Structure formats: structure tokens, C-alpha cells
Amino acid sequence: MKPLQELTRKNIWELTPYSCARDEFKGRAASVFLDANENPYGTLNRYPDPLQEQLKAKLSPVKGVPASRIFLGNGSDEAIDLVYRIFCEPRLDNVVAIAPTYGMYGVCADINDVEYRAVPLHDDFTLDAGALLAATDEHTKVIWLCSPNNPTGNAFQRAAIEHILTTFQGIVVVDEAYSDFSAARPFRLDLDRFPNLIVLNTFSKLWASAAIRLGMAFASEEIIALFNKVKYPYNVNQLTQQQALKMLDDLQHVELWRATLLSERAHLLPSVAELPICKAVYPTDANFFLARMSDADQIYCYLVDRGIIVRNRSRVQLCGNCLRITIGTPDENSTLLGALRQYR
Ligand code: PMP
């Protein structure tokens, strides 16, 4: 890996971050707070902990990552945007990403005026590590990988990802939003081996908390320090922190969801695959799957007319005539199957 200073935008490396009122007395007991211009009345009147220390302490053993290597943000989308703002000089640097993949990597590149180089996966949606590396040059700061990948659903071979991590001298982001549904070892457990690795996780998928907007980035302490410097001071609100702490008290429930969704996935995939209108169902390591249909546009509209919404991905690279279908409750899945069986 290149020295972190070389990979970081000069203005960010040299930035003096905003100092929160509460940072200044940290570690000492206090009961009269006249420092932050809050209203002393009410229940949500105080600014939340800017570094979410209680939440990180509770999350750390669950994720197997020290609290000092965790960044929490307003969804993992915040972490995606921060990667650009920290590392990529607009109109000068570029990033390389797989295609197809999660759309926000490209949108955030456009917002930040950073060149986005999309490199197609192989036809079977496996990773072309050689092509990704060949697309980099001296201005490539970041390679974006998403595993299991959205919208294809498959997790990539660990060896291919490791090859990219050890060969590329810049930052490699491995977005593991869906790794809770995969049997593969998550990369967040290997931060020690890869100083250039940033892993993304989210509360929006297995943790059933998309509404609270809570995402995670795991990386070296030095990279986490950069995230903390650039983020908005109070980027994770108090209600979100409270709700996440509550979710972390109920790990059994999360395990139950995982088991139910995996068992539903095991039922739904072959049932869709055997429909005459389905040409292929692709193997998945996520809580959704991609199905190639006889006519995705028509089937999509047919389902919408019945109040069933799936994602039409037919205009996405390599995904012609493909619908992306999320695993729902047993009732929702059988409603979908029933409708597809009646399609003429
Ligand atoms: N990464 C991937 C691969 C996703 O599919 C999504 C959401 N669909 C996100 C990140 C964003 O998650 P969050 O809700 O944490 O912003």
C-alpha cells in the first residue's frame, strides 16, 4: 500500500476538524451542561455522542472488530460518499469498480466529480481481478468491490479479492452489506492483514433496521481517524443510537431472521427456477436473487398490477431480462410464486 498520506487528499490530511462542545471536557464527570447552546428542557434536547462510543463498544464483540476500527454513519451510503471526499481529488483521481454493482458507488463518483471506471464481471458474474487491476493507473485511489454483489447476489472467491488487496497499492473497499447471508468468512475479520482494506456493513439488511439509517465501515485506526475528521459532527442521531443498542440486546431474534430467510431462500429459488417463464436463476449468497425471465418488462408490470414490487434490472449491464427478487416473509414469497404461476 502507498503511504496513507499519499492516498489522502491534501486538504483532508491537513484539515483541522470541527471540535464538538462535549469533546473538550471528555472523561470528567459533569451534571450542568451550559456549553452547547441546547435547551435544558425536553427529552431529546442534548446532542448525541459524536463518536457513538457506547454503541461501538456493544457492536465490537458482535462484529469481532475493535471499537477503534469502527466508523458509524448515516447508512453505509454515508461511508461510500466519505471515501470519495477523503481520498479522491475531483477531476484528477479515478476509481475502478465492478459492473454491474450497487449504484451509489457511481452516483457518489459523479457527485464528487471523480472518474468512475466500470469493469464488467465475467458472463457468469465472477470477478475478473486481472481486468480490474489493468484498469487502474497512477491516479486510481480506490477499487470498489461488493461481495455478495448487488444485483447479482454472488459472493466472489476470497483468493481473487485477496489478490486485488495485495496487488493494488490504493484503497480497496469490500462492501459486505449482505455478508450476513453468506457462508464465506467476512473480510472485516482480516483487517490486520490488509492495511488498505475498508469493509462496509449495514443495519439495513439482516438487522431489519433500514429506517434508522445506520451503516458501518471497518478499517485501520488511521483510516477510521480520517472518516471521523470529515464526517458531520453528529452524523448518527440519538434515536438511531438507542434503537441500535436495543437491536444488539436481541441477537437471538436476528439469528431467527437469518435462519428463516435462508430457509425461504432455499425454497423460493428452485420454485422460481422451474417456472416456464424463468430462463435461469443465479446462485446467491444474499437475501435476494437474480432471475432471468422470458420477458422481464412484461412480468414486472404484471406483478406491479397485482401490488407485488420486485426490481427490474433488465437494463443493467449483463442483466438483460433479469428481475432482482428480495426474499420476503413466507406469505409474501408464496404470493409472489402464486402470481408468477398464473402469468400467461
Ligand atoms: N451497499 C449495498 C451493496 C447495498 O445494496 C446497499 C443498499 N441497497 C447499501 C450499501 C446501502 O445501505 P445503507 O442502507 O446502509 O445505506
Secondary structure topology:
Elements: H1 4-7, H2 10-13, H3 53-63, E1 70-73, H4 76-87, E2 94-99, H5 104-111, E3 115-120, H6 129-134, E4 140-146, H7 158-167, E5 171-175, E6 197-202, E7 215-218, H8 221-230, H9 238-248, H10 251-273, E8 278-281, E9 288-293, H11 296-305, E10 311-312, E11 322-326, H12 330-342
Parallel strand pairs: 2-3, 2-4, 4-5, 5-6
Antiparallel strand pairs: 1-7, 6-7, 8-9, 9-11, 10-11
Helix pairs in contact: 3-9, 4-5, 10-12
The chain binds 4'-deoxy-4'-aminopyridoxal-5'-phosphate.
Structure description:
The protein has 344 residues and is α/β, with parallel strands linked by helices. It has helices at 4-7, 10-13, 53-63, 76-87, 104-111, 129-134, 158-167, 221-230, 238-248, 251-273, 296-305, 330-342; strands at residues 70-73, 94-99, 115-120, 140-146, 171-175, 197-202, 215-218, 278-281, 288-293, 311-312, 322-326. Helix content is 35%, strand content 16%. The strands form two sheets. A seven-stranded mixed sheet has the order 1-7-6-5-4-2-3, sandwiched between helices. A four-stranded antiparallel sheet has the order 8-9-11-10, covered by helices on one side. The model has no long low-confidence stretch (mean pLDDT 97). The chain has twelve helices and eleven strands. The structure holds 4'-deoxy-4'-aminopyridoxal-5'-phosphate. 4'-deoxy-4'-aminopyridoxal-5'-phosphate binds at residues 75-77, 102, 146, 150, 175, 177, 202, 204, 210, 215.
